[in-house]
Amino acid sequence: MRISSKAFIQETISIQGIPMVIQDTAGIHEGQDEIDKMGMHLTRSRLSDAELVLFVIDGSQGLDDRDRAIIEEIKGRTVITIINKADLPWQFTVENARSLGLTDTVAQISALHNQGLDHLKELLYETVLRFPHDSAAEILITSARQKNALDRTHAALHTASTAACEGLPPELIAIDLHAALQALGEITGQTSTEDILDRIFSTFCIGK
Length: 208
Hints:
- This protein is 45% helix and 14% strand.
- By secondary structure, it is α/β, with parallel strands linked by helices.
- Strands 3-4-5 form a 3-stranded parallel sheet, with helices on both faces. Strands 1-2 form a two-stranded antiparallel ribbon.
- The termini are far apart.
């Protein structure tokens, strides 16, 4: 008998231009029958492959045996502890999490009321940025819109590079760099065009 991977909920999200594959698996516990044991084996396999663990705790309840089993499983991993149900009286706090040796990266949220989700996204973004960068790793583009923006970025940078090599005036090069930055901004949701161009051309006298 085989447990299908479709039993797991998986979604691809993008936070400030960084694609992330999120998987929701069953909690860890001792299997009661063969199917349950196979499901736990698959859960542990997914956990082993994950680069980042999001450990969700019901903050309105104390820890149970399943929570403690998960804590043992994730020791030494990169973990963001998420304390849910922050809208209810707390039975489990940030201090409790840290006393158990969990990571200092803790988010308190209320999924029901969409509270604390922006902070959680910031923690995800900051944590992923600290991962070692493998330049040979495959880059995942999550939409046709992102591909289009990257194509326009590449084209604009190529034009700017050619113009610079040919000795064209800096203000003409700036037009293409501006277009490249705008296209990248469509992916990241952030643009700092003027500041970047100011730094690039700080040694030039543009338009004079």
